[in-house]
Design a protein that fits this description.
mainly alpha
Length: 207
């Protein structure tokens, strides 16, 4: 049986060599294809390397020269994807820095604002601008998103405590003005009622 086994091994080596040549040709095609999307290119190159690994396990053989050719071509084919992913990583890092700056502004606003004398309308407008800026920021890395998003929410919650207290104060003030306005209908002095109504209208301003 030994001669037959040797013959089968020869055929297997020939088959795997042919399969490797096919992978090299495919890598060459990818290298020359400028129309493929970077993500799809990366997937196909990963699949080629995985197929080569399987062939190596099946029949190591004398594949050194083929391996050098294959590795050279898939490395060159991957270069556009590599540059694309590097640019994406750079952009995600820039977006992260932008989001960190927004969080820092909100945190500073909470700690350094004199909430007893603050211009509430202006302050509320600034907070809304920071919220819009946050929505405009691009994506960040998956591992960074949870922490930076939590930081933003914590900062907004801290500011919301002050806004909520002011809203409640405004609500109570308007209730008081409404009670005063209802009483105007019972005033016998019309001129005084009109004057009081104008005063109430002037006071009907929410911060």
């Amino acid at each position: 049986a030994a001669p037959m086994v040797m013959e089968f091994k020869d055929w297997r080596s020939w088959g795997t060599d042919q399969a490797r040549e096919h992978l090299i040709e495919t890598a060459q095609r990818l290298e020359n294809d400028d129309s493929m999307e970077p993500e799809q290119r990366a997937k196909e190159i990963k699949a080629l390397r995985e197929e080569w690994r399987k062939l190596a396990q099946m029949d190591p053989g004398k594949q050194r020269k083929q391996w050098k050719d294959f590795d050279k071509k898939v490395t060159a084919a991957y270069e556009p994807s590599k540059q694309h992913f590097a640019e994406q990583a750079k952009q995600r890092n820039e977006h992260l820095q932008q989001r960190e700056a927004i969080c820092a502004q909100l945190e500073t606003m909470k700690t350094e604002t004199d909430w007893s004398t603050v211009d509430w309308k202006t302050q509320y407008a600034v907070i809304n601008e920071r919220r819009k800026d946050w929505k405009k920021c691009g994506t960040v890395g998956h591992k960074d998103w949870k922490s930076i998003n939590q930081r933003f929410n914590d900062a907004m919650d801290g500011l919301e405590e002050h806004l909520k207290a002011e809203r409640e104060r405004n609500f109570k003030e308007r209730q008081r003005l409404m009670e005063r306005s209802v009483a105007l209908a019972e005033m016998e002095d019309v001129q005084a009622a009109v004057s009081e109504a104008k005063s109430l209208q002037a006071d009907w301003q929410i911060t």
